[in-house]
Amino acid sequence: MNTTSLHARHRAVLPDWLALYYADPIELTHGEGRHVWDTEGRKYLDFFGGILTTMTAHALPEVTKAVAEQASRIIHSSTLYLNRPMVELAERVAQLSGIPDARVFFTTSGTEANDTALMLATAYRRSPQILAMRNSYHGRSFSTVGITGNAGWSPTSLSPLQTLYVHGGVRSRGPYAALSDAEFTDACVADLRDMLGQTRGDVAALIAEPVQGVGGFTSPPDGLYARFREVLRERGILWISDEVQTGWGRTGDHFWGWQAHDQAGPPDLLTFAKGIGNGMSIGGVVARADVMNCLDAHSISTFGGSPVTMAAGLANLSYLLEHDLQGNARRVGGLLIERLRAIAAQLPAVRDVRGRGLMIGVELARPGTDEAYPEAATAVLEACRAAGLLVGKGGGHDTSVLRIAPPMSLTVAEAEEGASILERALRTVS
Known about the structure:
By secondary structure, the protein is of the alpha/beta class. The chain has 13 helices and 15 strands.
């Protein structure tokens, strides 16, 4: 099998803006556990999991069996018919969400989940005004691109929504970076109040990622969104927690990212996707019943809640909970981040190592400065691939952050192997 030929065919029929990693892109043919193989038989330790989507493991027998068994019965019916796997997964997600009297609507992606949440919030509040965080990313649909606070992932300035951007998602850059955590939070809350004092009419919602994914795994101090929620509640503004990347225990300390900010209660809406399907196309929204039921028109989903994807989600969620993968993410992720910080202390090109659980960002900057270093990030990505490790990239400053998010069943030995490969790759640019 010739990947050069496949690459040429890819370029001939797919959009120019459809990004591919690596100067010589690779085709992955199969996986097992935390490893994948390409067409030439090369084995890689997967530290990116298909963009945080292979949550438990590649080719997890429990999931593949559930998919095969459901597919042998019926693959599709739509939401116009009762769907037992969908009801069963919705029951479990509603209970786990922490949102009282919750309702769940399933979609096929995180983009669609956020798009749905924005529709619900604006319909409930009768307002097109949305608060979003600087450096944010919420998907590639027209509405979610319109609220994305990261120019590298927002190809148009047109939007059906009026978006106002709030400080707080990035702790180590910007005008408040030098403040203490408490001072940083106070300054961001003051900025939010000031912004709301300048809006006309009702704002519908704040949408925020507890840890910004595409933005380079940045996050505010714990409790910031609880303080925001107190301000929002005064005006009836809803809080949407975008858990597409932070959900299901990946951050280790919490099952949901919002729980690091739970002093003022749960969000009004929660969106999820990626890891729950372990590669199958599942997304969704959890919301208070009054918010979810506010639509005054009929709606269905042709593919959301598919029996096959719901069966995969149920099996995957059961495996995650029964094997305490959240605890594993906390333990192994904690060891990995400390190992990477020890490495970074010796390397002038590493500006910051941050993250929680198995969601870790390594930010690169030109030595002696805070200037982004995208060439170095690309070089490290290539060097890791050559040595048998797959990592991701991101960051709001010229994509200079290496994103590390392996399957949550990662072992200590695999964490050490990946850290050693990454160390050698980082030394080539420092």
